[in-house]
Amino acid sequence: MTDASPLYNSRLIKNYLEYLEKMHPDISLDHLLAASGIGRAEVEDPGHWLTQDQINQFHAAMNQAVNAPEIARDAGRFTQVSRTSGMLKRYALGFMTPMMAYRAVAKIAAEWTRATDIATRPLSAKSIALTVTTKAGVQEQPFQCANRSGMFEALAQVFTGQLARVEHPTCMHRGGESCEYHISWQWLPSSHWKRWLRFGSMGAFLCLTVTMGVLSPHHWLIQLVGWAGVLGFGWTIAVALENQELKRSITHRAEIADQDLHEIKHRYSSAFLIQEIGQAASALHPPEIFIQTVMSILEKRLEYKGGMLWVAMEGQPDRLKGDGYGLKSAQLESFREILLGRPGAVLWGIFEAVYRQGAVVVADQPEEIARQFPDSVERLSQLGIRSLVAVPLKNEAQTFGILLMFNDMGRGRTAFSDINLISGLASQIALGLAGVRTYRRLQAREATYRMLVENQTDLVVKVDTEGCFLFVSPSYCRAFGKTEEELLGQVFMPLVHEDDRASTAKAMEALYHPPYTAFLEQRARTKDGWRWLSWADTALLNAAGQVTEIIGVGRDITERKQAEEALKESRDLFDSFMRHLPALAFIKDRKGRYIYTNQTYCAMFGEPDGHRLGKTDMELWDEEGAQELMANDRLALKQNRILNAVEKTQYEGETQYWQVSKFPLYKDGEAHYLGGVAFDISDRMKTEEAKQELEFQLLQTQKMEAIGTLAGGIAHDFNNILSAIIGFTEMSLLDATPESGLTGNLQKVLQAGGRARDLVKQILTFSRQSQMDPKPVEPRLIIKEALKLLRASLPTTVKMDVMIEPAGMVMADPTQIHQLVMNLCTNARDAMENIDGTLTVILEPVVMGAEEAARYPRLTPGPYCKLTVCDTGQGIPTHVLEKIFDPFFTTKGEGRGTGMGLSVVHGIVERIGGAIKVDSTPGKGTCFIIFLPAIADRPADVLPLSLKMPGGTERILFVDDEPFQTDLGRQMLGRLGYHVSAFTSSLEALAKFQAEPDAYDLMITDMTMPEMTGDVLASRVMTLRPDLPVILCTGYSERITEEAAAALGIRGFVMKPVVIRELALLLREILDSP
User: Fold this and answer.
1) Which top CATH class is 458-563?
2) Given this structure, which CATH class describes domain 955-1072?
3) Residue 819 and residue 825: Cα distance in Å, rounded?
4) What pLDDT does 103 receive?
5) Which residues contact residue 266 at a Cβ distance below 8 angstroms, ignoring those fewer than 6 apart?
6) Residue 767: is its pLDDT beyond 80?
7) Residue 801: which H helix or E strand, with range?
8) What CATH number labels 285-446?
9) Percent of the chain beyond pLDDT 70?
């Protein structure tokens, strides 16, 4: 049990209320009950039970209203005189003595509590011990123990007129496991008299016995008569008292019997009332007759002066019509029709509470009516209604109306059982109204169904489990050309085509299993010949769940079957065409989802049939390819035309090309779908790409050859000019004193000439016409020098971040490393023109593993110098990124760029054996990353500038077709002490040599000369004199290289412009060699 279980009879609370009404009349009992959450009707119903929580709340509210610590015990004592004392006297007075009553307390207690068990133990003739133990889960409070003590005191008062004495040695609220009460009481009056009479009789007997021999017989007889008179009088009084006690007991028993008889009559009347209401409901009378019948039953069976029954009109829930009894006809007329939703109308508040809110309204006094419904009190008073009970007529979730019962005089408090009875009657009435309405709706529906069946074109039949017709619709009779009489009782199967009978029987087997339905198609012999019929059959089951009948609804589908056959032939032809079409065929909806694909998809991609259905291109192709396909889809639908295009996708790492035709497909005049056919042209496209690549490479080769030829011609002439500039400047420096200002100017001219010489070398490097002079160099020093030169050319808006670490040596021409850095940084500077930016240059050593090296075809695992040049410019678009290393390709304006810078960089990196990659993000910037293979060698020592140039006295034959070159050579070599014979004609020089072959110790000749080139001249001379050393000079020549010259026996090879120091060293190296 819990505190929410019904444990205590409502008469306990009613006893409290009677006590408070008598002892504390100023207390509002209704407010006290409301604060306790207990309804007045619950208290008035002797069959109602309350929970522990309700008892606790009532006692707390009572203590707050009345400051009386002993009120619980006083209320217990009050049970002897209260109207509710019947619960005590009902059993107590059935016993002759208090002992018998107290011993029966356990049985009596069950009438008012289910929370405890009571055990009794006699202590003496007028005392007894009662042990009270609470049941599991019950949490009694101390005030309940005090109330129980008061009731035990009052029980003896029923017999003796005095309260019993109750001692309470053990209490569960003081730590005991139970409560023990020791109860003692006074003797009953008749018992007192009998007790003393017994003592008197014994005394008289002893007195007479003792005096028998002492007194005279006369006196002894007088004594005997006296004792007899006294004892007889006493016994007369004792018997009279005992008769009174017995009479009182019998009287109370009669009262209790009357109460029980009244209760039995009330229950019988209630049961008979419910039975009559049920009979009236089952009769299915129209609502008006049903209401009249119900009201006559209520008038006869209920103890109320009058009543009213209102029923909502079907389809008009705010309009109620009713009837009643107990009022005059004129008064009833004003209530026969009620319109709800109008504040201020008659009894508006009651109707709103009961009909709208579903509340049960109980008002036992006019004051309660005035408090609950002030708008209705005046009207009810005019009608003489002083108390009422109103309940809604509800069945399931629907409210049908209101039942109101009333009295003109107060009949006491309405019991909860009375409310339950009226509510039960209302439910029975509502059920009857629902049945009437349902019956009438069924009648209307049956008429509608019959009209539909008799007039519809579909065929309707009902057959038994043997297939015999129980019902056939007029449409079925017309279709088969038979009358209803001809068909009823006949089996339907003979009307079915022989080839379809087996499938029909098999399909109908489903009718005998849930969901007891079957759908089938068959051919039947109608008046128009064999026709296709489609049937939907449903089985009807009895209460035992067995199939008893079958209802079938059929339709002629012959035309549909013919159309399906034609469609199937068309579909087969279409499928055959699509299956053998050597192309992808598809249909998509407007959201791009595939709704059809032919079987070529399965063969080409090895996927199951229907794999693409419901999916979009984004789920099937690579993102770039899917975007292209979807863009073409939208274009075809938007322009509402056939779109021919070449589309590209990726499949298993390979690029596929498709020649696609896409076109809108129409439905209801609108383009709802997109159809398309795609032919695989990957092989053709790859062949064309290879052809274009070869053509491009050939064009590039021809372009490079043209550039090389152009560069060689320019270099030859430019080197001749530079030779004069550098040579005469060097000689002028030899003549100038260090202190003069001329020396500084000449040195600047010499520096400019050196840069011009380097520029010619770069042009030849790009055209692969120059000879590299690779040697171990440290890139760190060259890069720092290049950045010093570059820093002055940067605008103030560009910041430079430099992180140069020792990165080892590389085998390269220092000039080309310098040019590589300059070209990359110049490009970075131009990319940040007119914006604030940062140029970042990083040099660092790295060790490349096998996995990383595999990304670059030319690299192998090992140490590298990693050079990174980054800018924060606008970046390079993807379509431009593929062309940046092409010669002459530039995005700069006319006159601002040659397109050679990155081409030269790419050529230098490849010749060194390195690799270059580009990372660029449009809008963020570009990074060039270069890997150069590192070596362990140290760079060659550089000859100190202060070292004097070596000279000699040998005889030198100097040949060059340019007069200023011969003049320069004569002066340069003359200053070194040599004897020089200079010629501008190779033929003249050869003739001179032939005339005097031993007159010369060494010959210096230009390569490119008219009449006879330098290599031919050298061959002729060495033919005459094989031991003669020859040095060949050239600004540029396609015919001769250093290796080719050495193969001819030429001892030295010098590139123009010639530097005095280099030439001086070379002369001594050759002349001094054995």
Assistant:
1) alpha beta
2) alpha beta
3) 10
4) 80
5) none
6) no
7) strand 798-804
8) 3.30.450.40
9) 86
